[in-house]
Each structure stands twice: as C-alpha cells, then as structure tokens.
Amino acid sequence: MTDLAATLLPEVIDQLPDRERTVINGLFFERISMGEIAKSLGTDRKGVQRIRDYALTMLRGALQEACEQLADTLKDGDV
Description:
Layout: H1 3-14, H2 18-29, H3 34-41, H4 45-76
Helix pairs in contact: 1-4, 2-4, 3-4
C-alpha cells in the first residue's frame, strides 16, 4: 500500500455502509473473530465473508478513485 493510500484509508473506511465498516474494523483493526462478528450482525461466517469481500472491493475502488483525483489535482497545480 502506498503512503497516500494508507493516509486515505481511515476516511474511506468511514464512508462504508455500517455492516461493511463493522466487518472491516472488526477483522483488521480490532482483531475480532469472524464468528463473533457474525453473531453481532445476526448472520453466519459465510455472510461475514461476503460482506468482507464486498467491502474490500468498495475500498479498492474508493482508494483508487481518491488517489487518481489527488494525482490530477497535483498535476494541475491546484494545491
């Protein structure tokens, strides 16, 4: 991950829908087990896996877009 992406990541995670944000924060930052997250969301482990996969896809797209926009801004000298 680039420094820029790491800088943007918290902001992009905050923009995720609640369930997706809960799964990403739980799995990767709070180190909560998939089973515990599933129980809190009222789903099973497969459901958490689907939410995680969808959230990661959303994060990749949002980070790519944010990095491209910032690069365009810097290229144009608007900063």
